[in-house]
Amino acid sequence: MAALVECVPNFSAGRDPAVIKQITDSIESVIGVRLLNVDPGQATNRTVVTFVGDPESVMEAAFRAIKTAGDVIDMRAHTGEHPRMGATDVCPLIPISGITMAETAGYARKLAERVGHELELPVYLYEAAQPDKARSNLAVIRAGEYEGLAAKIARPEWQPDFGPAAFDAKRGATVIGARDFLVAYNVNLNTTSTRRANAIAFDVREAGRTVTDTAGHDVVQAGTLKSVKAIGWYIAEYGVAQVSMNLTNIDVTPVHVAFDEVCRAADRRGVRVTGSELVGLVPLRCLVDAGRYFLEKQQRSVGVSEKELIRIAIRSLGLDDLTPFKPEERVIEYLLQDTTTSRLVSMTLADFTAETASESPAPGGGSISAYVGALGAALGTMVANLSSHQRGWDDRWQEFSDWAAQGQGHARELLRLVDEDTRAFTIVMDAFGLPKTTDPEKATRKAAIQAATRYATEVPFKVMQTALASMSVIKAMAEQGQVTSVSDAGVGALCARTAVMGAYLNVKINAAQLADDAFAADIRVRGAAIEAQAQAMEAEILAIVAARMA
After folding, report:
1. 331's torsion region: left (phi>0), alpha (psi -120 to 50) or beta?
2. What is the spatial distance between Cα 550 and Cα 548, in angstroms, rounded to a whole number?
3. Average pLDDT, whole number, for the chain?
4. What's the CA gap between 320 and 337, in Å, rounded?
5. % of the chain with per-residue pLDDT over 70
6. Contact in structure between 376 and 494 (CB atoms under 8 Å)
7. Residues catalogued as catalytic
8. What values do phi and psi take at 304, rounded to 5?
9. CATH architecture assigned to 183-336
10. Residue 291 pLDDT > 90, yes or no?
11. What percentage of the chain's residues is helix, strand, coil (to nearest 5)?
């Protein structure tokens, strides 16, 4: 797997689009990086930029951006609500895939050394890139901000890690490091009071606040949320105060937990939460988990589509309170996804049908089998969701929610396999197209054809397994779901059995082309067993449906 790194530099400019564009143009000038998001803030006078790429390309783009920011931003004239100490205030590298945190930290140190040496800019390391844990916390490094930097940098303990130990009045200093994914999240309040917003922030942030005990000693009173940094500020642009948080570990404190805790803390102080905003990009699971959380609080089924979970999260968190929230522009997985891997399932039904009927050999029976299976799983899921709302069955919502969630999982996997089956066919065709002039080329081509054909056998076998698994949901809904939808469970069973039998035809025809006789025989035997199970389950389900419809 190729190494992929994300970079999220924060620049001390958010009010002049021309300045921001010069910085982002320098990033986009590097081949191998992809600019994903530019999020400027008027009140903070700060822009958060997100881009991804291979480590070397990301380092080059970050270097150019830091250089450009130093040229076009003058910190002597900068004002804004957000803490800052330089034109490029902070520049973190974040491992996405194919690379460890330790390796990412190494790249961050390499970037910091180059910035310090070539740009003669004071650079501090932070988080995983900083070997001295006493100065690895960004808040500690940035304490005193730009205004206190001249005095701070002169102190021996605050010599920069790279670059001159001298105050740069125009550019300030920058902080470069490596960290896990961080979610910048602000909660909107129905007050203009920074003092009240700060009080709420101190209530919830892990560091809490310092208070005096009965003996007159200063003691730290911890906040209620772990892995959360927070301050309060007033945003003139929107006329509201906010609790501004950095969620440094969303496994410990997810977005929805932070939101609800701020709601409780605000309510204790007579303040109401009106909504919230996410800054920059977020992982998909932040919104999906939030959608499930709020559905569970309502005792509603969580077995709904990903799109619906996201819609519920946006509404529940009030993410469109200040500006429209567009998931396709803010969810990192959506921005990184390869659209070619979901070409078929993204089509309309009419286009998919036309594509199937065209002269092209793909999509063929394998993709159609997967799609029919997805429809069967979807029908079982539908019955579960409808049953969870059945009048008089309020105490059974969790039971049906669990079934619906299982069904959604099967349907998602089968939809993925619609395109994967066609991709497997393309891999086979590509292998047949390899050169075959010399003996080594012939050997390479033969091996590639066999490997591709084996994969083209394994994909429809996975369709068989998944479609069979979905029949457990369908059967449960035929037995236990609301009676008015029992016919839908019956249709779901027909679809699932069709998916199994159709996929098995593809397994057999592809296995026949394999030189590995043992593998081919084994997968045919296992496929026959799955087919028999699906046919038996179909008969059981249809009998149950007939009895309940009688």
Report:
1. beta
2. 6
3. 94
4. 24
5. 99
6. yes
7. 82, 421
8. -110, 175
9. 2-Layer Sandwich (3.30)
10. yes
11. 55, 15, 30
Q: Which amino acid is at 531?
A: E
Cα–Cα distance measured from residue 264 to residue 278, given in angstroms and rounded to the nearest whole number: 20
Contact 198, 212 (CB under 8 A): no
Tell me the backbone φ, ψ of residue 449, rounded to 5 degrees. -65, -45
Q: Measuring CA to CA, which residue among 115, 111, 126 is closest to residue 69? A: 115
The pLDDT > 90 percentage for the chain reads: 87
What distance lies between CA 99 and its chain's CA centroid?
17
Where residue 1 falls among pLDDT bands split at 50, 70, 90?
low
CA dist., res. 83 & res. 148, Å (int): 12
Q: What average pLDDT does range 455-484 have in this prediction?
A: 97
**How many C-beta atoms lie closer than 10 Å to residue 443's C-beta?**
11
CATH 3.30.70.670 residue ranges for the chain: 183-336
**Separation CA 167–CA 163 (nearest Å):** 11
Residue (of 366, 389, 385) closest to 377 by Cα position: 385
Q: Find where tokens 């491992």 sit.
A: 95
Stretch 271-279: mean pLDDT, rounded? Answer: 96
The residue with tokens 């480590």 is: 55
Compute the distance between CA of residue 224 and CA of residue 200 in angstroms, rounded to an integer.
11
Residue type, 413: E
Rounded Cα distance, 187 and 263, in Å = 9
Backbone angle region of 98, left / alpha / beta, with phi > 0 → left and psi within -120 to 50 → alpha: left
Amino acid letter, 508: K
41 is written with which tokens? 């803030």
b/e sequence 230-241, b meaning 16+ C-beta within 10 Å: bbbbbbeeeebb
Which CATH architecture group holds 339-549? Up-down Bundle (1.20)
Collapsing DSSP to helix, strand or coil, 183 comes out as: strand
- Going through 193-342 in order, the beta strands assigned E by DSSP cover 209-212, 218-221, 228-235, 240-247, 273-279
For the chain, residues classed under CATH 3.30.990.10 are 4-178
What DSSP assignment string belongs to 23-70? Answer: HHHHHHTSTTEEEEEEEEETTTTEEEEEEEE-HHHHHHHHHHHHHHHH
CATH 1.20.120.680 domain locations along the chain: 339-549
Residue type for position 268: R
Mean pLDDT in residue range 467-471 = 98
26-52: per-residue pLDDT in tens? 999 999 999 999 999 888 899 999 999
What the block records as the tokens of 65 is: 């951006």
What superfamily does domain 4-178 belong to in CATH?
Formiminotransferase, N-terminal subdomain (3.30.990.10)
Would you say 122 and 207 are in contact if contact means Cβ atoms under 8 Å apart? no
